[in-house]
User: What shape does this take?
Amino acid sequence: MNILERLESAPAGAPVDVRIENVSRRRFLQQTGGLALGLYLSPLLTACGRNAPGDATRAVDFEPDAFVRVGTDDSVTVIAKHLEMGQGTYTGLATLIAEELDADWPQVKVIGAPADAARYKNLVFGSQGTGGSTAMRECFEQMREAGAAARAMLVAAAAERWNVPAATIVVDNGVVRHPPTQRRARFGELAEAAASQPVPKRVRLKSPGEFKLIGRQMLPRKDNDKTDGSAIYTQDLHLPDMLVAVVAHPPRFWAQVKNVDDGKARSMPDVAAVVQFQGQPGAFNGGVAVLACHTWAAWQARDALQVEWDDTHAFKLGSREIFARYRELAQKPGLVARDDGDAEGALAGKNVARIIEAEYEFPYLAHASMEPLNCVVKLGDGSCEIWNGEQLQTNDQDAVAALLGIAPDKVTIHQLYAGGSFGRRGNPHADYVLEAVSIAKGARAQGIQAPVKLVWTREDDTRGGYYRPAFVHVVRAALDRQGRALAWRQRLVGQSIRRGTAFEKSIKNGIDNSSVEGASDLPYAIPNLRVELHTPDDITVPVQWWRSVGHTHTAYSTECMIDELAQAAGQDPYRFRRALLANQPHHRAVLDLAATKAGWERPLEPGTKDERRGRGIAVHQSFHTYVAEVAEVTVRPNGSFKVDRVVCAVDCGLAINPDVVRAQMEGGIGYGLSAALLDAITLEDGVVQQSNFDRYPPLRMNQMPAVEVHIVPSAEHPTGVGEPGVPPSAPAVANALAAATGQRLRKLPFDTAALKKT
Assistant: This one.
């Protein structure tokens, strides 16, 4: 019986939870020689865990709230409302529940929550979604309370069964015990009885001194099925009769299909249909999709299409023209994002000893996730079902519902793993999801009822838009006669991520904070500080958030300029920063820790003959987390260089999973170095010039430095770690290169020609 038949056979009116679980690759290969998904249907229980009439299987588990389920087989299932895309969310959420539940870690498993904002909304967003490094920050109490409630109900069930006071019962590693009588029961033995207990209105949470799992080293991750290939991503999902769609997209953004010759494509083997679909200007491009029985056939047939494009409304500028426009705007006053003291007056004042002005240029950047974009859609009569590595459930539900003219609750989204995202799957326009639904809708109009899997190739993914915005910054800063930072004026020019989206309401007085964050909240004690923003409305390259968003460019300009000021003042860059951060204890703590662990006060070991070595430092706060990094570099005579070592100090509050924190810092450093050393999306006449990893390369393993991560001990509320490792990495390296060569690099990616030894 296939999944659709099983759904149809479920009891009338019963809410059904479709869980996609992994069948052992080894076991399945013994049977059929391929990869399959095990699809298990388990009816959901009511909020208080009581049995529903008419379905005997409902007595198996108890679900005290939306986030945890305990089965008679001793399993503890955590329902994760946040997407697992490699950042360790499943492990973190499971740790929080298992800690308060006192579960045995191996018995805990995690599944993705369905799209249901009423139960699973992000408390920071106000809707369901993953992003902004918010998962642990907003779930710290919520998930612990869920675990504590489940524990209390198991204890109450045991106390009732054994006729003993609940206060005399202890729980440890999945076992409920009554020491005075030596009675004991595993969770599974009590699950059915616990389901009849009332959900406690208030629960006691453990103090940090009582933690057994939170903060523990080397706790095995709950997404480690990735290590044996059994993890399920969208690309692995196969529904009965499913067709694969590969799309011919316009070479220029917002071009429209004019004519299509699809005769050759339709005649190719395994091709089922060709579907032309309309996009939504400013949201997603229209195109022509080929539907076939498998990806290769669809891809080959897509390439056989002859499409003529109408470029009347297409974007046609190149990178040179864009940056020329930006540099021109940067010479004019913009909207004010911050204004302390009198920056203009101070810059022109008599107490100025030295003025430094620098222009920084940041290109468009692709997300370049390991898994290109994809999505599975099945349309019904007045309904839509989606399988996806889903990052913004509520946003995408609403967008799909609007496209189809149905209610949002008729759009079901099943959450799978995502093979990376770095923000790309959290698109405020729901671009690729709407594309998939548009194709399925067009196929349905041709009489095709089958599910459709949209697959983007790597080239589609690289050229598809929704990049980190390009920016130009111009910083003008002054030192006074005592060598102190006196004034700072910074102008930023770049596209808004939020403009024209459902998130536009967060723009205040014309300022999109995601454009200026990291600059408008500069922590240094500079008495005269002004930050201005230009947001051009005639540049329509599709943009969105990219790992650490605006901090990716503001950290670079601010930390490089601070370094220049220190050099001009004849002061040590670390000491110069430290003095300006006298009232910023968190910044100083990570700065001190990174400098100490890096041996900042000790001279660097010299390189070989004609090599130059340098050390640089940077500190930045993003997503409520403080990170300082010290980089060491070796520069060769021809200007090429190697980042030898990065020492990172992070203050993320209480580290729920220290190993995950370290992994995220290491990954963030590598990701930031890719952008600084290698990557840029460039346009010529509106056409993106990059297509695959040959022209948009990730950092190679042999280019990755040795990384040390040191976590500041803290009992404060946890903050985010998925993004904050990225911003300081590029400026730390740039400052190290300046220390080695005397050359300041103000354009990314780095131009090594400037570093050649003359």
